[in-house]
Amino acid sequence: MSAKKILVTGAGGFIGHHLVKFLKQKGFWVRGVDIKAPEFEPTRADEFEFLDLRHLENCLAATRGIDEVYHLAADMGGIGYITAFHATIAKNNTLINVHMLEAARIQGVHRFLFSSSACVYPQYLQDRPDTQPLQEEDAWPADPEEGYGLEKLYMEKLCQYYREDFGLETRVVRFHNVYGPLGTYEGGREKAPAAICRKIALAKNGDEIEIWGDGQQTRSFLYIDDCIEGIYRIMEAGYPHPLNLGSEERVTINELVDLVAEIAGKQIRKRYDLTKPQGVRGRNSDNTKLRTVLGWAPQTPLREGLVPTYRWIEEQLRKAGRIP
Ligand code: NAD
Q1: Where are the alpha helices (DSSP H) in the chain?
Q2: What is the mean pLDDT of each run of 10 residues along the chain (324 residues)?
Q3: Whose CA is nearest to atom 9 of ligand 1?
Q4: Which of 124, 108, 114, 261 lies closest to 173, judged by CA?
Q5: Nearest atom in ligand 1 to 222's CA
């Protein structure tokens, strides 16, 4: 049993909750912090505190006695949410992140992992479906996603400054579209894989579902188990610069829909809504650096990860009496 004390912020959220379970299985003592409890099952954290991390005094309380911080708390959601609320998201995340870093410094935390995003990458490199996979150094010269992405990019820099000036050991992980069971699947904050699973689970054989954009936009999707394994390995490794943590399996949204429909065993027709936000035209992760640093990279094929994801969303809808 390790005596190391770990804080997971955003422990009521999708990645944070999975990470708490993983760290507990490894035998660590874990404090979870969030403004809400995990939605779908109880936390496994040794302590779970409800704290609004936009305030420094709450960040100081969260980090007391802590050796390592996995900082996942953020005001975030899918493309619909992050394009609609630039000011609120940028303000909330700036307050959370600046105060968490400062609290970690004051409390003498040893390691601090910041969860950044593929949204930091320049829009000019993502304007075609078949665009080159993104390498870490592509982030500059900058032209990130407004609001959410720009704030993440600035925070990456702040992590660097705290490391250089104060000796705080920081890690920066750029997640690319994480999906899996226990993720938000409705309400406006859900991301494409969960939204498509929900729509197909609710549809009858032969029904039409709405797709945002023309479906030709491309993405890669990272299964939650790979994400958690990767975060842990990045925290353990001594590499302080930003690292992609994504899948290299690029698909169009149309292909994603076809995969889910096949898993569901349904014929699904697509109706395209070109007025809805679709984000960048093409995005994929280049994991060359990740492989070099960790000797490891995500392995779960999209089809394999979508099976438990679809089944879990279907089960939630069935339990709620929304499908037979
Ligand atoms: P999530 O929304 O499920 O979890 C974030 C958690 O932060 C939520 O439970 C939320 O309540 C909490 N939070 C928000 N404001 C807070 C506050 N003021 N004080 C305390 N807690 C607060 O999101 P997630 O998918 O688990 O993402 C975790 C991290 O990974 C975030 O930083 C996110 O930006 C980043 N990220 C995620 C993805 C992805 O595909 N899921 C992609 C890129 C980056």
Answers
A1: 14-25, 56-62, 79-84, 86-106, 148-166, 192-202, 224-236, 253-264, 288-294, 302-319
A2: 87 98 97 98 98 98 98 92 94 98 98 98 96 97 97 98 98 98 94 96 97 96 98 97 98 98 98 93 97 98 98 97 94
A3: 13
A4: 114
A5: 40
Cα distances from 312 to residues 184, 194, 201, 209, in angstroms, run: 11, 10, 10, 20
Say which of 148, 162, 185, 223 is annotated catalytic. Answer: 148
Let me know if 148 is a catalytic residue. yes
Cα 12 to middle of ligand 1, angstroms? 9
Could you give all domains of the chain from N- to C-terminal order, each with its CATH number? 5-178+223-245 (3.40.50.720), 179-220+249-284+301-319 (3.90.25.10)
CA dihedral angle for residue 199, residue 201, residue 204, residue 210, rounded to 10 degrees: 10
pTM above 0.85, yes or no: yes
The span from the CA of 219 to the CA of 228, in Å, is: 20
